[in-house]
Structures are given as C-alpha cells and as structure tokens.
Specification:
This protein is α/β, with parallel strands linked by helices and 389 residues long. The protein has helices spanning 35-38, 47-59, 70-83, 96-111, 128-132, 157-163, 188-201, 235-241, 283-298, 301-316, 341-349, 374-388; strands at 14-18, 21-24, 29-32, 88-93, 115-119, 149-152, 169-174, 204-208, 246-249, 260-265, 322-328, 331-336, 353-354, 363-366. The chain has a domain at 48-298: Type I PLP-dependent aspartate aminotransferase-like (Major domain) (Aspartate Aminotransferase, domain 2, 3-Layer(aba) Sandwich), CATH 3.40.640.10. A 7-stranded mixed beta sheet has the order 4-10-9-8-7-5-6, with helices on both faces. Strand 1 and strand 2 form a beta hairpin. The structure holds pyridoxal-5'-phosphate. Pyridoxal-5'-phosphate (PLP) is lined by residues 37, 95-97, 100, 123-125, 175, 179-180, 208, 210-211, 250. Its EC number is 2.6.1.11. Its cofactor is pyridoxal 5'-phosphate.
Length: 389
C-alpha cells in the first residue's frame, strides 16, 4: 500500500528533535520557527513533557469516557485557573476541527437554529460544519455545502449589523487572530460589537482559539487582548464584556499530542449523550496538556512570548523588504511585496529554518515554541538577510 497522496512534501526527513531544533536523517540540524503548523508550544521533547507522558503510560494510557477519570478533572481545574476561564466547563476531543465541529453542533443544539456567521479568510478545520465555516471553496465538497454559512468581512460593522436582522443564526465563529488566513485581526471595538450583539440576540459566540490559544499570542487566549479596562475594573468583570460562549482549543495544547477541546460557558447546560467521543480526554492526552500548562507556568512563557514578540518586531524594522509585521506575541507574520513560497523554500534548504505560509501568499509566518530566545530570533533574521541578499 502507498500513502494517499494529499500532502506536497519538502525533501526533509526529521528523525529527532529537541527544543527548537530538528535533526534529519543525514544529521543536518534545522531551526523550527513553525512548530509543525503552530503545534509545538513548549519545544520538542521537553523533558518535563516527556517524563509526564512516560509516567502516565506506565500507569494507564487510555480508557473510554465511561469510567471515572480524575486526570480529566485535574486538567479542567488547572486549565480554568491558567486561562482565567473558571466559569466554563471542559469537553475534550482530538483535534481543532473536531473542537469547532462540537462547538457549532452545541450552538445549534442550544439555540435550535442552524445558520452560522463566519468571516472572510477564516479557517476552522476540514470536517463537516467546521469546513463549511472555512472560507476556502477548494476544501468544501458538495456534501459540506448543505451547511448555511454567511461570510462577512472582518471589521465591517454595517455588514454585521445587517446580518443581525435575521433570527436564524445559531453561532458566530471567530478567530481573534486569523492563522491560516494571514494574521488579520478584529479590532477591539469590532470584537465587543459582535459580543454585544450575540448576547442581545441569544447567538452563541465561538472563539476559535485553536491556533492562537495556550499563550501563543502573549495572553492565554487571544480574545483576552480585547478585554476593555475602561468598562469594568476587575478581570472577571472585564472578561464578561467580550466573553465567548464557547472557546475551541487544540494545537499548542498538547505540544504534538493529538488533543483538542471546547470550553463551554456554564450558561450552556450539558446533558448525557449531547456530545461524545471515544478517544477524547484519554489519560495520555490529559497528561500531555497538563505538562504543557505546567511548563507555561514554570517558565513564564506568556511573558516570554510578549517580550520576544516585541523583540522580533523591532528586528523586523531593520528590513526595508518587510512591508508589515502582523500578529501578537509569538503568532507572527512578515508581509513582503512579493510572494514568499520561494523564499520559504530557500530558508529551509539553504538556511535550514522552517517557517510557515498563509492564504495570503506574501506572508511568511513565524510560529516558534514559546520558550525560544533572542539568539534564535537573531539567527532567523541572519538567515533571512542572507536569502534576501
Ligand atoms: C484557527 C484554526 N481552527 C481550526 C483548525 C483545525 O485544526 P486541526 O487541523 O487540528 O483540525 C486550525 C488548523 O490550522 C486553525 O488554525
């Protein structure tokens, strides 16, 4: 049997990885500034992560969601505290698409409606409702087109207000920083405008934090950049001003272990059988996620993401070729005047550095582990300088 050939591949075969470094089968070392689509949050094979997974595997790796699983409860409690989202309940699954699929399904159950609002250039995954809410006709099969999704321009208040004339929407799904689309962001005013309208109309607001969550943007969740300090004095009250009803998570959550989930606001009630999955929330997935949370705290990685993001932005100013630096924390992109596919290839083969692409073909994405150092950023810009000539 051969592989179903859906992925265009670079000719690199990593066989080991440590921190931000990958080593290929010929012993060549690469710097990983992409983390395999924004997945590696605390570095490859972090010792604490490896030990926690090994210890868990020695005890019990998996059982289904029909038994008591204290490590899931431990994780829910730790995640609530780390994210300042203690008014939410956790449902676990296995990927970002699955998280959004469950979020949309739950919104539909909750409201008994079926239409969804998403935004231009959105990416929410490749499964049924998630792909229908993804702004890319090439990955929507005829079977996905039965979902009714309205795509609106980001930051267009008028278009959003007009859509609110309808009473048929169950959900608005929104990335606080667009990942695959190319790092465009809703303004704070727009985020708050959406949140207020959703509250008023009883529409479920879904914050897709699959890529931007777990500290990548410099806050635990990227929507938390839009908390309004003017409106209310305490963090908890502030959260209320842009409080999503559901928050979807995956990617950096497991640092490579396939795990996803949704945080469901306590105003949305659970009932037996409403959602379910065989693998979701298994012991190993919980151990991986707890290890990530522990390292984020122990190494103060949200602070590092902010500081190094600012350092990256300063360094980028030295390059006339860079038109714009986009993003927050260590969820960053460099926009050039030209398409970057060739530059990205040269960075891999000549400079041995992984970076990412986006739907915006002029954008080079930079999504390293949150514990990189200034030296790594200097090395990136040295490599970039060599390739720009
Ligand atoms: C914002 C966002 N949501 C959802 C997904 C889908 O995640 P997965 O590939 O784990 O299904 C992605 C993947 O890139 C993403 O960036």
């Amino acid at each position: 049997m051969k592989l179903f050939d859906v992925y265009p591949l670079y000719d690199v075969t990593p066989v080991s990885a440590k921190g931000i470094e990958l080593t290929d089968d010929k012993g060549k070392k690469y710097l990983d500034f992409y983390g395999g689509h924004a997945v590696i949050s605390i570095g490859h094979s972090h010792p604490h992560y490896v030990n926690r997974l090994k210890e868990q595997l020695d005890k019990i790796g998996f059982y289904s969601n029909s038994i008591q699983n204290p490590i899931q409860k431990e994780l829910a409690s730790a995640l609530g505290k780390a994210s300042n989202c203690e008014a939410y309940n956790l449902f676990m699954c296995n990927s970002g698409a699955e998280a959004n699929e469950n979020a949309l399904k739950l919104a539909s159950f909750h409201t008994q409606k079926s239409k969804v609002i998403a935004f231009n250039n959105s990416f929410h995954g490749r499964t049924s409702a998630a792909v229908a809410a993804t702004d890319n006709p090439n990955i929507n099969a005829p079977i996905n087109k039965q979902q009714e999704v309205t795509f609106l321009p980001l930051n267009d208040f008028e278009a959003f207000e007009k859509a609110m004339d309808s009473d048929e929407y169950c959900a608005v799904i929104l990335e606080a920083i667009q990942g695959v689309g190319g790092l465009d962001e809703p303004t704070t005013q727009f985020y708050q405008f959406i949140a207020e309208h959703c509250k008023k109309k009883g529409i479920v607001l879904i914050a897709d934090e699959v890529q931007s969550g777990f500290g990548r943007s410099g806050k635990f969740f990227a929507f938390q950049h839009h908390l309004d300090p003017e409106r209310s004095p305490t963090d908890t009250e502030r959260s209320r001003s842009v409080q999503p009803d559901i928050i979807s998570i995956a990617k950096g959550m497991g640092n490579g272990f396939p795990v996803g989930g949704i945080l469901v606001h306590e105003s949305i009630k659970a009932s037996y059988g409403l959602l379910g999955t065989t693998f979701g929330g298994n012991h190993l997935a919980c151990a991986a996620t707890l290890a990530v949370l522990e390292v984020l705290k122990e190494e103060d990685l949200l602070v590092n993401a902010n500081e190094l993001g600012s350092y990256f932005k300063e360094k980028a100013k030295e390059f006339l070729e860079i038109k714009k630096v986009k993003g927050k924390g260590l969820m960053l992109g460099l926009e050039f005047e030209f398409e970057v596919a060739d530059l990205r290839k040269r960075l891999i083969y000549n400079q041995h550095m992984f970076t990412g692409s986006a739907k915006n073909k002029k954008l080079l994405r930079f999504l390293p582990a949150l514990n990189i150092t200034k030296t790594h950023i200097d090395l990136f810009f040295e490599g970039l300088q060599k390739e720009l000539g």
